[in-house]
Amino acid sequence: MKKYIFKRVVIAVITVLVILLILYLMLDLMPGSPFNDEKMTAEQQAALYAKYGLNDPFPVRYLRYVRDMLKGDFGISYAIQKNCPISTMLKARVPISLRIGLQAAVFGTFVGLILGIVAAIKRNSPWDTVATTISVLGVSLPSFVFALLLSYLFSYKLKVFPLLYSSKEAFKSTILPTISLSMFTIASIARYSRSELIEVLNSEYILLADSKGITRTRLICTHAVHNALIGVITVLAPLVVNLMTGSLVVEKAFSIPGIGSLYIKAIQMNDYNVTLSISFLYSVLFIFTMLLVDILYGIIDPRIRLAKEG
Amino acid sequence: MDETFNPAASAPDDFRPATGDHREEEQKAFVNQSYWHDVFHRFCANKGAVIGLIFIVLILLFAIFGPMLSHYSYRTVDPLSTNLKPRIPGLEKLGIFSGYNDSVSTAYHYFGTDNLGRDLFTRVAQGTRVSFEIAGLAVLCDVLLGVVYGLVSGYFGGKVDMVMQRITEVLNSIPTMIVVTLLLLIIKPGMGSIIIAMMLTGWINMSRIVRAQVLKVKEQEFVLAANTIGDTNRNIIFKEILPNAMGQIIVTFMFSIPNAIFMEAFLAFIGLGIPAPMASLGSLINDGYKSAMIYPHMILSPVIILALLMLSFNLFADGLRDAIDPQMKQI
Lengths: 310, 331
Prior knowledge:
heterodimer; A: mainly alpha; B: mainly alpha; about 65% helix
C-alpha cells in the first residue's frame, strides 16, 4: 500500500513540475523584454536585469518560479486590473466558483445516484425509461444549452430567479447555475450506477443473501448499493474535469464573478499572467483530485492497487 | 438373437447412402455468418442506434448540400435585412415561420438572419460542415497516433511499455482544457491550430484502449503460433493483433467525434473559436448568445443542430458498442 501511494504521489509531483515548466517556458520564450521603455539606456536595462535575476541560468530561474508559484505569488495582472497582484484578484473569486462547483457536485451525485438506483431496481419500467432519457440528454447536451434554456424559462419568462448573478441574492442566483452545471454529473452518475448495480444484482452473492431470507430493502441498501458504489468512484475524475470546463461556460452565461469568467476575460484580453495562473490553479486542482481518487480506490478495492503496482 | 437385432429389417429407411443433400439442409439451419454480419444484425435491432445513424446522415447531407442549395453566401453582409426571423414558403401561411411581419424584406430566410444580415440557413450549414471537418480530422489524427502508440507500447512491453505508460500518465494528468487553451494562446485560433490543439491530448484515450486490447490478444494461441513459425513483428502486429482490436478502435472513434464537436463548441464559446467570417456550430452559438433573449431564433438553429448531433452520435456509438461486443462495458 505504501509503495502504491508513494508512486501516485511521485507521478503527481512530476506532473505539477511539468505543468510549471510549460507555463514558465511560455513566459520565458515570449518575444520582447519586460523593460521596454525607449528612454532606458543599455546600462539601466542591464542593471534591472541583474536586479530581478533575469541573467541567471535557466534552472535557477525556473526553480525560483516554481517556488513563487507554490507560495501563491502569481505575479501581477497586465491588462485586466493593471499592476494588481493576481492572488488578490483570485481571493475574492475562488469562494464563489468553489461554492457553485461543490453545490453542483453534491446535487449532481445525489440526484444521479437516486436516478441510477431506481432505474436499476425497477428495470424496464417507466422509471427506467425516464432515468435513461435524462442520462442520455445530460451527456449529449452541453451545459450552456441548459444554462440558456433555464435562464430563458425561469429568469426571462417566469422571472423566478435573477437573470444575472447578484451578490445580494447570492443563494438564489446560484440555483440555476448549479442545476445547469450538475446535469452532466447527474447523467453520468445515473448511467454508471445503473449498469453497475444491475451487474451486482445479478451476481451470486446477492442470490445467496436473498435465499437466506433477508428483506429486500436490506438486500439492496447494504449488499448491492454498497458494492456498486465502488465502481462509481472511477467516474469522479472525468466529472471534475467537466465541472471545471462547465464552470467556465456557466459562469460566463450567468455572469458570475468567479475564476471561470476571469479566465475567459484573461484569454480575450490577452492577459498572459492571469491566464497562466488560473491554468496552474485548475491543473493543481485536477491533479490533486486524481491523486485522491487513485488512493481512495486503492484503499477500497485492493485489486486495483495490485494491478497498478505490477 | 437374429430376430431381436436386425437393423436392416427393423428400420429399412433409417440408413440411406449419403447423397450430398444433407449439406444443403445443414447450411439452411446454420447460415454461415461472418462476425461483421452479426454486428450488423445486432446493430439494426437497436432502435435508438438506427435513429441516431439516420439523424447523423441527415445532418451530414445538410452540411454537404446546404450551402449549395441556398442562393445566399455565408459571408455576404446585407444591412437591409438584419435580425430577420425565420420565414419558410408554405409554412408561413399557417402562421408559423412567417418572418418579420412589417418587414421591408420579402426574401425567404429559412432560419432567419443574424445581426449583420447574413442568412442563417447557409451559415448553420457551413458551420456544421466546419464542425464536422474539425472533429473528423482531429479524431482521425488521434486514431493514427493512438493506435500506433498503443500497439507499440502493448506489444513490446517491458521497459518500452514502462516508459511510454509513465509519459501518458503524466500527460493525462494535465486537463485537456488547459493544454488546448495554452496552445491557442500561442498560435492564433484557426482550423489547423484547433485541430492540433485537440489532437495533443486526444490520442491518449485511444492509445490506452488499444494497449489494453493488445495485452489481451497477445497471450492467445494464434499469436504464439505466428511467433513460432517465425513471422516478423510487423506481420504479427498488423495481421494478427490489429484486426482483433478493430472493434474497440471503431467504437472509441465514434465516441470521440461528439467529444471533439463539443470541445470545438466549448472553445468557440470561451472566445477561442474559428475567426469570423467563417462559422462553426460553436461560433454561431456564441454569436447568438449575445442576443439570445431578444432574438432567440439566432441561437436556436445551431443549438438544435448541435444537440441533435451530439445525441445521435451518442446513441449511435452506444448501439455500435453493444453490437460489436455485447460483453463490453462502458469505456
